[in-house]
Amino acid sequence: MFDRIYRSTVLGVAGRRPIENLVRTRAWSVAARFVAGESSATAIAAVKELAADGILSNLDLLGEFVSSPETANAFAEQILSLQTQAAEAGVKPYVSVKLSSIGQGQVVDGSDLGYVNARRIVGQARELGGYVCLDMEDHPRVDQTLGQLRGLLNEYGAEHVGTVLQSYLYRSEADRDGLDDLRPSLRIVKGAYLEPESVAMPDKTDVDAAFRRLVYSHLKAGLDHPTQVTNIATHDESIIEDVKMFVVAHGIPRTRFEFQMLYGIRRDLQKKLASEGFTVRAYIPYGRDWYAYFSRRIAERPANVMFVLKGLLRG
Fold first, then answer.
1. pLDDT at 315 over 50
2. Residues 271 and 208 in one domain
C-alpha cells in the first residue's frame, strides 16, 4: 500500500506545470542519468558505449499520446530514421515503440493510424534484420495493442516484433497464455503506470509473485521454439537469482532469455551478468519529450526523489 501511495503522490506532484518547468530548466544533469540525450546521435553513442561492456541495447524515442495524425506520422518518420541510422552505424536496430506515439486510436481513411505506422516500422526492421518491441501502455490500450500485435506477428514474424506484459495487471497471465499460438518474444515488466486497484495489484509482494509466474510460464512455453525469447526486465537481484536457478533446473538455454534493465540503473549489475555469459540488454530512452518517462523513474523508488532534489539544489 505504501508503494501505491508513494507512486501516486510523486506522479501527482510531477504532473504540476511549475514542477515540470523547474525540473526541465534546472535538472537535466539529473535526468541525463536515465535518458541518453535528446538526439538519435547521442542515443547511438550510448549503445556503442554499452557494447564495449558486452551489453546490448533497446532504443526508445520518448513520446506518447500524440494528438494529431501529422505529429504521429512525424514521430513514425523519426523512428524509421533511427533504425536506418543504427544500421548504418553497425548497430542492429532494436527499438521500442509506444503505439500511441504513432497514432494508435486515430482513424485515417478507415484504418488505425498506429497500426499503419507500425507496419511501416516493423517492415523496415525486417529488411534491416532488426526487432521492434511494442511497448505496453496504460490498461485501456492493452486489448488494442495485443490485437495489433497479432496482425504484425502474422505478417512479419516473431523474429521482428514482440510486446510487453505488465505483471501488476490482473489480466496479464491470461494474456500471456492467449499468445502461445504465436510464440512471441515478450518483455516482462512489473508496470510503472498509476492504475486503479480494480485492474492492477496494489501490493508489491503480489506484483513480484505475478512477475515470477509470467517469466517462468513464458520460459517453459518457449523451450522448444528458438525464436521465442523471454525478456526479463528487472533490477531485483532476488528475482534474477531465482531465474538463474529456474533455467538450470528446466534445461533452458541462455539463448532463450535476456535480462533487461534501464539505462543508468545498476550498471554494475548489468556488467556482472554480462561477464557471467548472460545476455543483457539496456533500455535506452532518448528525445526531447523525456519528462514523463523521467517522472515514472522517480516514482519507482524514494531514493530517486532525493537524487533529484540534490540535483535541483546544485542547479
1. no
2. yes
